[in-house]
Amino acid sequence: MSPRCKKPRKCRCKFKGKVFKPTCVPLSRIEQIPLLREELEALKLCDLDDLTQAEAGVRIGVSRGTIQRILAVARKKVAKALSKGQAIVFQ
Q1: Strand, helix or coil at 46?
Q2: What is the DSSP letter of 44?
Q3: Residue 34 class from Cβ within 10 Å (0-12 exposed, 13-18 middle, 19+ buried)?
Q4: What one-character DSSP code corresponds to residue 23?
Q5: DSSP E strand boundaries for the chain
Q6: Distance from C-alpha of 35 to C-alpha of 75, rounded to nearest angstrom
Q7: Which residue from 18, 90, 38, 77 is spatially nearest to 46, judged by alpha carbons?
Q8: What kind of architecture, by CATH, is found in domain 32-90?
Q9: φ and ψ at residue 90, rounded to 5 degrees
Q10: Nearest-5° angle of CA 79, CA 56, CA 10?
Q11: What ranges do the domains of the chain cover?
């Protein structure tokens, strides 16, 4: 039995560049952490726009539990990149 197909997600958040990285360090010298469009959208909706996870799930078109999982992964990636001086690459 194969896994369920991934639901299409409605992401309206526009990237303002391709990479967020420490200054004065070439991108080739630091570890790069990919941040998916849906992860950025979930962070924006819940942390910047102050929506509940249920409200964010409705906006993106997924369940509250899916938003919770996306947020957990996204927050871990961002915290790791900021604390260790790594680059966040938007995909």
Answers
A1: helix
A2: I
A3: exposed
A4: T
A5: 19-20, 32-35, 87-90
A6: 10
A7: 38
A8: Orthogonal Bundle (1.10)
A9: -80, 130
A10: 100
A11: 32-90
Q: Per residue of the chain (91 residues), what is the pLDDT tens digit? A: 667 676 666 666 666 678 888 888 898 899 999 999 899 999 999 999 999 999 999 999 999 999 999 999 999 999 999 999 999 998 8
Check: pTM over 0.85? Answer yes or no.
no
Q: In a 3-state reduction of DSSP, which class is residue 48? A: helix
Q: Which two tokens stand for residue 29?
A: 């010298």
Size of the chain in residues: 91
Query: In this structure, what token pair is assigned to residue 62?
Result: 């997924």
Q: How far is CA 80 from CA 3, 6, 27, 71, 88, in A?
A: 30, 26, 16, 14, 10
